[in-house]
């Protein structure tokens, strides 16, 4: 997957990037409740797992915007990937530990779901921090805390503050009136995106949940 270097002097975001990376190093988090009423109903009718569907939704929307694909390469070059794949947590119920797994992203949900199920079959019981080897450099993190419907979530990352990719945390869904709502928290670096971009992402995720019949299989082969 191609990494595209950013030419700083030609980048319209240069003053914001320099301010929020060098002068006032700043990240921000945002938590919103997604209405997954239609999505959950459709998934249940086709016996498709919710977690990989959410992972694919998030990755699809992230890949639409270069702001969320902008980061430092391992050699220190600033740029953006053509496409990202998700790196997500899986839980081991017997000893209450977790591992990190990654699955190659593709726009077609069926293909991604097959790869997800295959990865889970091969590596889902491997108990180490990275259960699947050879994680590609163009991945971003997604995790799930399905035991609590949180109203806010903030990650405190104690490093140089140069991790620019978004980080997502999914909470426990709950019913409110006639809707099923799911809390989703995103951690963003202000050097590469603003509240506008985060808001746009959440709005596009909601639209994708509402129009799930357009991208989910009509007759799932996964049963």
How would you describe this structure to a colleague?
The protein is an alpha+beta fold and 223 residues long. The protein has helices spanning 14-23, 37-46, 50-62, 109-123, 195-210, and strands at 3-5, 27-35, 70-72, 78-81, 85-92, 97-102, 139-145, 167-171, 174-176, 179-189. Strands 2, 5, 6, 7, 8, 9 and 10 form a seven-stranded mixed beta sheet that branches. A three-stranded antiparallel beta sheet has the order 1-4-3, with no helix packed on it. A hairpin with a 4-residue loop joins β5 and β6 (97-102). α3 packs across α5.
Q: Total helix count? A: 5
**How much is the average pLDDT?**
95
Radius of gyration: 18 Å
The largest sheet is: 7 strands, mixed
Shape: globular
Strand content: 25-35%
| SSE order, one letter for each helix or strand | EHEHHEEEEHEEEEH
Layout of helices and strands, plus pairs?
Elements: E1 3-5, H1 14-23, E2 27-35, H2 37-46, H3 50-62, E3 70-72, E4 78-81, E5 85-92, E6 97-102, H4 109-123, E7 139-145, E8 167-171, E9 174-176, E10 179-189, H5 195-210
Parallel strand pairs: 5-7, 7-8
Antiparallel strand pairs: 1-4, 2-10, 3-4, 5-6, 8-10, 9-10
